[in-house]
Give the backbone structure.
Amino acid sequence: MRVDVVSIFPEYLAPLDLSLIGRARAAGTLRLAVHDLRSWTHDVHRTVDDTPYGGGPGMVMRPEPWGEALDALAPAELAPDGVTLPRLLVPSPAGEPFTQAMAHELAAESHLLFACGRYEGIDQRVLDHAATRMRVTEVSLGDYVLFGGEVAVLVILEAVTRLLPGVLGNAGSLDEESHAHGLLEAPMYTKPATWRGHEVPEVLRSGDHGRIARWRRDEALTRTAARRPDLLAALDPASLDKRDRAALDRAGFPLPAEDVAK
Ligand code: JD8
């Protein structure tokens, strides 16, 4: 996968050299380039922002450097070998929520191009113009306010890179995790069996794989009911068996009778 990132703070993306993402880059699975938006300015002050039309606080990113950056990284003329245009991703608090499903979708792309805004964001015409020649997605990390898109790119690339073939050593751990089942995961423990007076639950030391699986399922349901009732409400009721419903009942989670699976 090819990834280009444009930012006025390219040094903010330095962590992408580290750990598993760095390894994917070294292995050639990920061809990542970070670009300084100011390299597409032409004035002595390398200006990227100006005051907002209509008034209001702060500054808005001017369209011209962004237009040149996107022209350079997503040329309108298809290359002779027929390579496709990138998918343009623009982090924004007004974007579509980033989810594991979107991570899977992005992991299937051959070329991602991230535009990191700062200040009050990027002139809307940059996105409107880009949308006339490539797929554009405004994406949000969640309902809180960041200074800019750089941290969102770090998060999105970490989620996407680990889905690329050959990046995660143990492929089996991919489908076992939270959000694959629509439930939070049960807590995990390792040695020693007793630590500072806190014991590892007896069931996990029992060697009874059936009891262990049931205990983990109950913990996942109980935690999800307490912390993420939205996830439980979104579950297909048919995916909950009798013992699931008993666990949820003990957790005080209301299950409407008509939603109860047979
Ligand atoms: C990009 C500029 C800041 C945005 C005024 C101060 C994502 N989940 C998320 N929260 N915030 C962002 C985000 C914030 C950004 C930019 C992403 C570019 N800002 C501005 C408009 C209102 N603030 C985000 N993904």
User: Anything to note?
Assistant: The pocket of JD8 is lined by residues 91-93, 95, 117-118, 120-121, 140-142, 144-149, 152 (CB under 6 Å). The beta strands are 2-7, 31-36, 49-50, 60-61, 87-97, 111-115, 136-140, 194-195, 198-199. Helices lie at 19-26, 63-73, 100-107, 124-130, 150-161, 209-227, 229-234, 242-250. DSSP finds eight helices and nine strands in the chain.
